[in-house]
Amino acid sequence: MTTTEQDTGTTEEQATAAGSGLNATATFARKERGSSGPVDHDRVSTIAKDALGALHEVIRRHQVTYEEYDALKAWLISVGETGEWPLFLDVFVEHVVEEVAHADRKGAVGTIEGPYYIPGAPEFASEAEVPMRDDEAGTPLLFQGTVSDLDGTPLENALVELWHADDAGYYSQFAPGIPEWNLRAQIRTGADGHYAFHTIQPAPYQIPTDGSCGRLIAAAGWHPWRPAHLHLKVTAEGKAPVTTQLYFVGGDYTDDDVAQAVKPELMLDPQPASSGAGVQVTYDFPLDPA
Ligand code: MBD
Ligand code: FE
């Protein structure tokens, strides 16, 4: 990890695709989304055959050449070398996995997790001053709401995890020069199910332009941006956990997210804060039964 180097210059000067990619790859290696059972050989065979068949069909349809095949091979190798598989998959593939996984949810709407979640952020009861630098840039944001069941009954002891980019679009633990838990926190709700985070508004996120994903995006003439977003993970005993992101009405790229992870239910419209400093917004999480 590069997270303890806090006096070696600005993040903008040193963030690299390989730096964040290798951290994201190491983070994924530590992850346990749930135990997998024994291998279902029929299912592996069916899905692998269909996936390869889809690729074969594309090659025939577009008369792909040996030069293009070699370019693909070199590119795939470079994605691994720079650790950008988590970034590539979460940007270009995860949104469909999420859509399939949560198609029958009735409560809070989910979207992709992305590559930059880290469990174990500093924990608070009900209300959090999210860890940030003394001179953290950005508009102060009070983000609050209630975790409940589908009937609206508040859930005590629910866990609300928040992580997001800073005002320059960088995540702690994935860009150098940022304190370890910067803009990461988790809240345990009390009996009223309420949570409140005092943080700052994040900036849009740009896929690193100096790596393999950036090369694909540039070669295709796409843009590398995600709209500004808050990441959330909400869990409670006996309820289906929700991983989601919230976006800002009127923000750049909300209609054109490179990761296709915006949904109409996920828009925040913060208003001037009653404290006088910055903005505030409320968002509730009614959780489906497990
Ligand atoms: C992000 O910040 C993100 O949320 C996703 C899904 C992919 C890349 C960077
Ligand atoms: Fe993100």
Going across the biggest sheet, name each strand in turn: 1-5-4-9-10-11
Uncertain spans: 1-9
Q: State the CATH superfamily name of one domain.
A: Aromatic compound dioxygenase
Helix content: 25-40%
Which CATH architecture of one domain is right?
Sandwich
Beta-strand content: 15-25%
Sheet bearing the most strands, described?
A: 6 strands, mixed
Q: pLDDT average, as an integer?
A: 94
Task: Offer a quick outline of the entry.
27% of the residues lie in helices and 22% in strands.
Task: Characterise the protein shown here.
This protein is of the alpha/beta class and 290 residues long. The chain is 27% helix and 22% strand. The chain is built from seven helices and 14 strands. The protein starts with 10 loop residues before the first helix and ends with a strand. It binds 3-methylcatechol and fe (iii) ion. The site of 3-methylcatechol has 11 residues, from helix 5.
